[in-house]
Design goal:
Elements: E1 2-3, E2 7-9, H1 10-17, E3 20-22, E4 25-28, E5 31-33, E6 39-40, E7 43-45, H2 46-53, E8 57-60, E9 65-68, E10 87-89, E11 95-97
Antiparallel strand pairs: 1-9, 2-7, 3-4, 4-5, 6-7, 8-9, 10-11
Length: about 110
């Protein structure tokens, strides 16, 4: 999740992370992480949530952005090797979906010119 500041709407947080904000905390499947006062009036304190959920949070000073990483459960490794859905145009302009390769080992290599 890429952010301009550490105060986000709960809807934005849910869309970007896949976690649903409920009275008991942030929930996904059978897992719920209590967030306490990190959630108020439809807003979430992303820094507090990242600490409670064990999600890495880093700042890019040059671009004045924050990046919230995936939930790991332990803070050290991803809980699954399942990548999120990704849909991009191929070289012919047709849509390619990462999910079309489900069940196969896939290497995703990204590059940016900056």
């Amino acid at each position: 999740m890429i952010l301009r500041d550490l105060d986000a709407g709960t809807d934005e947080f849910e869309r970007a992370t896949g976690w649903k904000i409920r009275p008991e905390g942030a929930c996904r499947g059978d897992v719920c992480v209590p967030l306490g006062d990190a959630v108020r009036d439809g807003r979430i304190d992303v820094a507090a949530a990242s600490q409670r959920m064990g999600m890495p949070l880093v700042r890019d000073d040059q671009h004045d952005l924050w990046a919230l990483g995936p939930w790991t459960g332990s803070g050290r490794a991803l809980v699954s090797a399942e990548a999120p859905e990704l849909a991009l145009p191929d070289l012919d302009g047709d849509e390619f979906r990462l999910s079309s390769l489900r069940g196969q080992k896939v290497l995703v290599l990204s590059w940016a010119p900056y």
